[in-house]
TrEMBL record:
Catalytic activity entry: dTDP-beta-L-rhamnose + NADP(+) = dTDP-4-dehydro-beta-L-rhamnose + NADPH + H(+)
Top-level taxonomy: Bacteria, Pseudomonadati, Pseudomonadota, Alphaproteobacteria, Acetobacterales
Gene3D superfamilies: NAD(P)-binding Rossmann-like Domain, UDP-galactose 4-epimerase, domain 1
Cofactors required: Mg(2+)
General function of this protein: Catalyzes the reduction of dTDP-6-deoxy-L-lyxo-4-hexulose to yield dTDP-L-rhamnose.
TM ranges: none
Record's cofactor remark: Binds 1 Mg(2+) ion per monomer.
CDD domains: dTDP_HR_like_SDR_e
Residues covered by the RmlD-like substrate binding domain: 1-291
Pathway: Carbohydrate biosynthesis; dTDP-L-rhamnose biosynthesis
Any GO BP: dTDP-rhamnose biosynthetic process
Protein name: dTDP-4-dehydrorhamnose reductase
InterPro entries in the record: dTDP_dehydrorham_reduct, NAD(P)-bd_dom_sf, RmlD-like-bd
Keyword vocabulary terms for this entry: NADP, Oxidoreductase
């Protein structure tokens, strides 16, 4: 099948470009200027020109803090652009895969969020992603929305790479221990999308296959717990690691407010699609192996 991916250099796009050809798919991955989600004029033309069997949106405005002062751009990409891409797919009768975030939730529910739990984002990024979910579902009834969280990979910007960089520079590192969630490796997300594609292409509008699903890694942790696992793995690979200090959100002020507990209940994707959360600790090992060059062995 021919798969059009919006995005080329982002974490998920890179993993999809690596994964989908292994299932025999022909992949076209486009980034600006060839496909710019903030430029409504060119979106439908890019889909027409590629003539795909399915469209996957792996592009987004993901700078959570910067979004607080770039509201218009965040909404142009994450809401308007996502909706137009979904509409362009619908106009050709194509299914649409869209990715959203745990940040659509406020994070004060005290229990994992089900797929139909009420949303209430605390920041502009989450608001723009929620608006994007609505635009996508309104534009294309054959859309699947995968809400995920804490995405990491050897590529692009993410928490694993930030921790390794800061850890190499500092004696001690303070990380919030009161925000709960689950890391998700882009590789595992790409694998899930690869497994979904044949069923989505075959499924008619109205099928259970479409709609909102949650998919993160497992088990749940905090950012501090995740950092501890990163440094444990880094130390095993011979890296000098910092002293890690647990702190509260109040001790780490940021422009955007993050949800305290946006754990996502992934029950629906297990029931409908038979896809289970991957153990992020295994995926972290792979990621660290890719990021940390082993020291030369003496002979
Ligand atoms: N990263 C995370 O922790 C999480 C991500 N998600 C969602 O998962 C999806 C994939 O995220 P991820 O791969 O991590 O994101 P990245 O930030 O790694 O990649 C996003 C890509 O989108 C591109 N992009 C930005 N603006 C535009 C535009 N106007 N038109 C076309 N492309 C654009 C970026 O290009 P450039 O770099 O040049 O700006 C980048 O290549 C997104 O929908 C995101 O919201 C959900 C939960 C967590
Ligand atoms: C760098 C650093 C961060 N932190 C905190 C800040 C924040 O609460 C948490 C994570 O920081 P980050 O800035 O990497 O995370 P953030 O950019 O908020 O990550 C989010 O990105 C978007 C795109 C999503 O969709 C979310 O699922 C989530 O992955 O760790 C520390 O406590 N100490 C530190 O040294
Ligand atoms: Mg970030």
């Amino acid at each position: 099948m021919r798969v059009l991916i919006a995005g080329r250099t982002g974490q998920l796009a890179v993993e999809l470009m690596e994964r989908l050809p292994r299932d025999g798919h022909l992949v076209t991955a486009l980034e600006p200027p060839d496909l710019d989600l903030a430029d409504s004029a060119g979106i439908a033309a890019a889909v027409e020109a590629t003539a795909p069997d399915i469209v996957v949106n792996a592009a987004a405005y993901t700078a959570v803090d910067k979004a607080e002062s770039q509201r218009d751009l965040a909404f142009a990409v994450n809401a308007t652009g996502a909706g137009l891409l979904a509409a362009a797919a619908a106009a050709r009768g194509l299914p649409f895969v869209h990715v959203s975030t745990d940040y659509v939730f406020r994070g004060d529910g005290g229990a994992p969020y089900a797929e139909d739990a009420p949303t209430d984002p605390a920041g502009v990024y989450g608001e723009s992603k929620l608006e994007g979910e609505r635009a996508v579902l309104a534009a294309n009834p054959r859309s699947i929305i995968l809400r995920t969280a804490w995405v990491c990979s050897p590529h692009g910007n993410n928490f694993v790479k930030t921790m390794l960089r800061l850890g190499a520079e500092r004696e001690s590192l303070s990380v919030v221990d009161d925000q709960h969630g689950a890391p998700t490796f882009a590789h595992d997300l790409a694998d899930a999308i690869a497994r979904l594609i044949p069923g989505l292409v075959a499924a008619p509008a109205g099928s259970d296959a479409f709609g909102i699903f949650h998919l993160t890694g497992a088990p749940w942790t905090t950012w501090h717990g995740f950092a501890a696992a990163i440094f444990e793995g880094a130390a095993q690979r011979g890296q000098r690691v910092p002293r890690l200090v647990p702190i509260t959100t109040a001790q780490y002020p940021t422009p955007a407010r993050r949800p305290a507990d946006a754990r996502l209940d992934c029950g629906r994707i297990i029931r409908v699609h038979g896809i289970h959360p991957a153990d992020w600790r295994r995926s972290l090992s792979r990621c660290l192996a890719a990021l940390i060059t082993p020291p030369e062995t003496m002979s």
